[in-house]
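QA checklist item 7 of 12: single-chain prediction sanity check.
[x] sequence parsed
[x] length recorded as 74
[x] structure emitted
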Amino acid sequence: MALKLDVDHPNYPKGMEFDLDGIGAKNGDSVQVTAEMERAFLAKNGKTIKEIYGHSTIVKVSGTSELKKEGGDG
């Protein structure tokens, strides 16, 4: 299963859009992350999604990096 980001920020209304360092997500929803989105995130931030959001209480990261399956940097 590809990476999935679940966003739940209690101080903002459901449906409010967030920019998670280049990945768009709505509060109260989840977004499936493609390999292309992961590559762009890594290029922009110099770190993987799990490195940046892995310990967040607002953004839950689940699943497996698509880049690992391709033999990439993930």
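[x] summary fact logged: The CA atoms of residues 68 and 74 lie 5 Å apart.
[ ] second reviewer sign-off
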